[in-house]
Write a structure and sequence with these properties.
Order of helices and strands: EEHEHEHEEEHEHEEHEHEHEEEHEHE
Shape: globular
Radius of gyration: 19 Å
Largest sheet: 9 strands, mixed
Number of strands: 17
Structural class: alpha+beta
Number of helices: 10
Strand order of the largest sheet: 9-10-16-15-14-11-12-13-17
Strand content: 25-35%
């Protein structure tokens, strides 16, 4: 069962590799709950169960708009007979065609970099977001999370972003340069949202880290030295804070990775290698002082901050003075931290 505080739900999974929650059931259930409208922005869709839920929504007369990353719908090398199905990512094209045949409004993104969003706005009143792509591996093998918020102000923020995506606003060509969305409080939980590149999520993450008094815990897929987050971690370690994190096994060993500098500063780091059950550690998840969660689609890299379509959602406020709010924040943060602990203890290999 997810961790729920009023109108905020937090899912950690997938269940197939020991996580507490079934990510596919959460996504399908969210889509099946739509009555009037769905705006879906996701990097990749190759999960038949999720595609079936989208098509079911259209059959219920729900208005559906969908934006996907273009690179999963095309081939780098032309097939000898393009009328014969096949090639890499064929399931993406198969489901794409079925969705088109269902009279659903589908666009591929205009971004020449990476369209990395993973969110759904339902009926203008609820949002699903997180690190989970709508793929079979994303919901059954890759370590991921989801956040669902039932709140019209939060939903309106994502709806506005969806509109800009459909207009082709992205990266350095983004004409909007919108102001950051206003913070809201949902069920005693402060919520802050930031979209890349307009709102510089990297800077927001660093600001939250610099408020830490005790510890930073994280699980992250891609953590590069092109990000300034590693420099902040190094400074926090030098100030005596505990920094501990899990990294995807392949990404942690890349030349550009921030692994070694952060490790050399005294951080406790673990790699999560691919095995027969686990595909990738795909989280973009941080817990600060066991009270504040940073979640969403945002990897800790320069391109994620400057070029890609991304989002982060921050749950909590380290400066909150309300006892009721602090209690709610700590309960949610514990659920995320418990999963980071589980990943480290079950799959982690300590980096020497």
């Amino acid at each position: 069962m997810p961790k729920t505080k009023g109108n905020v739900e937090l899912y950690m999974g997938p269940k197939e590799v020991g996580g507490p929650d079934d990510l596919c059931v959460a996504i399908v259930g969210f889509i099946d709950g739509a009555k009037k409208k769905l705006d879906i922005a996701v990097q990749e869709l190759d999960c038949r169960r999720i595609a079936d839920a989208i098509i079911r929504a259209r059959k219920r007369k729900v208005t559906v708009r969908l934006v996907l990353e273009a690179s999963y719908l095309t081939l780098n090398k032309a097939r000898p007979d393009p009328y014969v199905p096949g090639g890499e990512n064929e399931m993406n094209r198969f489901l794409h065609d079925a969705i088109l045949r269902s009279a659903i409004n589908v666009h591929s993104d205009f971004n020449p970099e990476i369209f990395h969003q993973k969110f759904i706005v339902r009926d203008g009143s609820a949002v699903l977001t997180g690190s989970t792509n709508f793929t079979d591996t994303g919901v059954s093998r890759n370590l991921n999370h989801l956040v669902i918020v039932h709140d019209r102000k939060v939903a309106n923020t994502y709806t506005k972003e969806f509109g800009e995506i459909q207009q082709g606003h992205f990266g350095k060509l983004n004409e909007g340069h919108d102001k950051a969305p206003k913070d809201v409080v949902v069920s005693n939980l402060p919520i802050r949202i930031a979209f890349a590149p307009d709102h510089h999520p990297e800077m927001e993450i660093m600001k939250q880290m610099l408020k830490a008094k005790n510890r930073i815990d994280f699980a992250i897929f891609t953590f590069a030295q092109s990000s300034a987050i590693d420099d902040t971690m190094i400074q926090l370690r030098q100030s005596g804070l505990t920094v501990r994190g899990a990294l995807d096994g392949i990404m942690a060993n890349q030349k550009w990775a921030a692994t070694r500098p952060v490790k050399n500063a005294g951080a406790e780091l673990y790699s999560v290698p691919k095995n027969g059950n686990v595909g990738k550690l795909h989280h973009k998840l941080m817990v600060i002082d066991e009270q504040l969660i940073i979640a969403g689609s945002f990897n800790y890299t320069g391109p994620a901050n400057q070029l890609n379509d991304e989002n982060i959602i921050i749950i909590g406020d380290l400066e909150s003075t309300s006892a009721e709010s602090k209690n709610a924040q700590k309960q949610m943060a514990k659920y995320a931290l418990d999963e980071i602990n589980r990943i480290i203890s079950t799959f982690g290999v300590k980096i020497p």
